[in-house]
Amino acid sequence: MCAAVLNGGRGQAAMSVYFEELDFRPTPMGVLSLRRRRQLGSGLDIYEIKLGDEFLMSSLFTVAEIALARLGLAALERSDLDVVVGGLGLGYTARAALENPSVKSLIVVDALAEVIEWHAQGLLPLGKEISGDPRCRLVHGDFFAMSDSSAGFDPLAPGRRFDAVLVDIDHSPRNLLHARHAALYTLAGLKRLAEHLHPGGVFALWSNDAPDQAFETVLAGAFAISATHVVSFENPLQHRDASNTIYVGVKAGLPIQKAIPGTSQ
Questions:
Q1: Residue pLDDT, tens place only, 190-235
Q2: How far is 126 from 120, CA to CA, in rounded Å?
Q3: Could you give the angle at which helices 187-194 and 213-222 cross, rounded to 10 degrees?
Q4: How crowded is residue 199: how many other Cβ atoms within 10 Å of its Cβ?
Q5: Are 56 and 49 in contact (CB under 8 A)?
Q6: Which H helix or E strand runs over 19?
Q7: What is the pTM assigned to this prediction?
Q8: Strands 30-38 and 45-51, sheet pairing
Q9: How far apart are CA 265 and CA 263, in angstroms?
Q10: In CATH, what number is assigned to the domain containing residue 152?
Q11: 8 A C-beta contact, residue 148 and residue 54
Q12: How far apart are CA 56 and CA 60, in angstroms?
């Protein structure tokens, strides 16, 4: 195994056929690292983002991240959609949104400039595809502060409203990356987020945990229609099925294409 220095000496990466640390950086939240490892059984390269010892994202598990965009946008019947994704990660939610032909523009907000750089530099498999799409703009910012502010999510157009806001940042409404994120998951926080949506706009949230009845009640109080989806997928590491949860809330104001399975009001 040999070592190489990447990004002007900011990170030292261990490389081999089976493992490569592509970059690591100190951040205010902890040491952030990007790794590639080869899965012995399939021969596939798996990309992982870690914050300290905690895994944030893995390209081995992307089904629910893709479902976040598809389920959220499926609740809209109009075209020419302006969409926000909170949390860039490995880019699977953003790409799924861009695959929808009704999406006119996409802003992806991430608090970690390093993750945006990795995409722009092509260190991640979807990086060039996402950053090269003329509909897409990657914004370095605090999604939670933006949600709470009247200026909103577009630094170039304060107060701009959107058709959908899709969020994949915290592990769940209870399991947070930072305590200050908690305000978003309250009734007041969700109502403030809804102010950034057009009438009939959609909020969708990814969660690693099972459905949370207390959060479902809060969601139903903030939106005219709410739904909870359990997304199942195979976990090849444990040889069993796993599941994540997608919450969807629809703001009042415009007709909805169809009732969302499992909706509650």
A1: 999 999 999 999 999 999 999 999 999 999 999 999 999 999 987 7
A2: 10
A3: 40
A4: 11
A5: yes
A6: strand 19-27
A7: 0.86
A8: antiparallel
A9: 7
A10: 3.40.50.150
A11: no
A12: 12
